[in-house]
TrEMBL record:
Residues 3-117, 157-302 form the EamA domain. The chain crosses the membrane at residues 5-25, 31-50, 62-81, 93-113, 125-142, 154-174, 194-213, 233-254, 261-279, 285-305. The keyword Chaperone does not apply. PANTHER family: INNER MEMBRANE TRANSPORTER, S-ADENOSYLMETHIONINE_S-ADENOSYLHOMOCYSTEINE TRANSPORTER. Keywords: Cell membrane, Membrane, Transmembrane, Transmembrane helix. It is a multi-pass membrane protein. The lineage of its organism: Bacteria, Pseudomonadati, Pseudomonadota, Betaproteobacteria, Burkholderiales. This is DMT family transporter. InterPro entries: AA-Vitamin_Transporters, EamA_dom, EmrE-like. It is found in: Cell membrane. It comes from Undibacterium curvum. The keyword Nucleotide-binding does not apply.
Length: 310
């Protein structure tokens, strides 16, 4: 269990990068950021997939269909919606909505549990989920209080997109975890490469359509890379390798080692990492309420671990 927890923590650390990228590149749409990130992911996955050819050949048609579904929902749709939400409503609202993932995933894991899942009584989840929910509310309350009245239209648009991202990112870890636990012959690295290869044609086709819909008077490279090509390409490569391939590999490993209800709650590490990066980008120190909220989040995680270990 310890190795699974460390893998989930590491995945959260690299996944936190995706929250600050839309703030660094405000002139790029969420769709452009999503296609760029996963185009890079797919290209990066070609090398490990080539080196892992014997295992890749063992994947069945059903495996590839599952990888495509996971890539479409958990990668492209999720990040396009999240990045757009952050640009429309700012970072606080999407962080609040996405930050409810540990609670939403734990509830969904219980509601759709199978006989193979680790069963734990609802009453044992009340304390850890309550601590996590309270921590998330405190973390975001100070941020939400700063919302400008003139931002309400973009606020609600961002809220809707963040809810879409929440639905996609709730479905992804549960389905991914279930599939890996039912197909234990698939290694975490093989499955990460498979999802990268499944993402590549989807992202390439999406980027092609996006480029064709842009101003035709601009050269192809300008439509493809936008106003800050070096920053865009560099960050897409960083996200493609660290937040996508490496993050997926780490999360796949955690999904194989941990009960689904517990691994879902450990996505809170992503929220903690995102907050850390956001405050570093702002060059601000968190308010006392936010620090208290972070402490509650950590206590909630510890309480969850204790429940699942007992």
């Amino acid at each position: 269990m310890l190795s699974g927890i460390l893998a989930a923590l590491s995945a959260g650390i690299v996944w936190g990068l995706v929250f600050v990228t839309p703030l660094i590149l405000p002139d790029y749409t969420g769709i452009q950021l999503s296609f760029g990130r996963y185009l890079a992911f797919g290209l990066i996955a070609l090398l490990p997939a080539w080196l892992d050819r014997p295992q890749m050949r063992k994947l069945t048609r059903a495996d590839w269909l599952c990888a495509f579904r996971l890539a479409l929902v958990g990668n492209l749709i999720y990040y396009a919606a999240l990045a757009s939400a952050i640009q429309l409503a700012g970072a606080p609202l999407p962080t609040l909505i996405i930050g409810t993932l540990p609670v939403v995933i734990a509830i969904c894991a219980k509601l759709f549990a199978t006989e193979e899942d680790h069963h734990i009584a609802w009453r044992h989840l009340v304390l850890p989920l309550g601590l996590i929910a309270s921590g998330l509310a405190l973390v975001n309350s100070a941020e939400l209080a700063q919302l400008h009245p003139g931002q309400w239209r973009s606020y609600w648009q961002g809220a809707l997109l963040a809810c879409i991202a929440l639905a996609a990112w709730t479905w992804y870890p549960l389905q991914n975890s279930r599939y890996l636990q039912q197909h234990t012959h698939i290694s975490a690295s093989t499955w990460a490469s498979a999802q990268g290869l499944a993402t590549l044609p989807l992202a390439a086709a999406g980027m092609l359509v996006y480029v064709l819909l842009q101003d035709s008077s601009l050269p192809i490279y300008a439509r493809l890379t936008g106003p800050e090509p070096l920053s865009y390409l560099g960050l897409m490569l960083v996200l493609g390798f660290f937040a996508s391939w490496l993050g997926t590999l780490l999360w796949n490993y955690a999904s194989q080692q941990l009960p689904r209800g517990l691994s879902g709650q450990l996505i809170v590490f992503e929220t903690l990492a995102a907050l850390t990066y956001a405050y570093c980008w702002r060059q601000e120190w968190p308010a006392p309420a936010i620090l208290l909220g972070i402490a509650l989040l950590v206590l909630g995680i510890m309480a969850a671990l204790k429940r699942f270990q007992s």
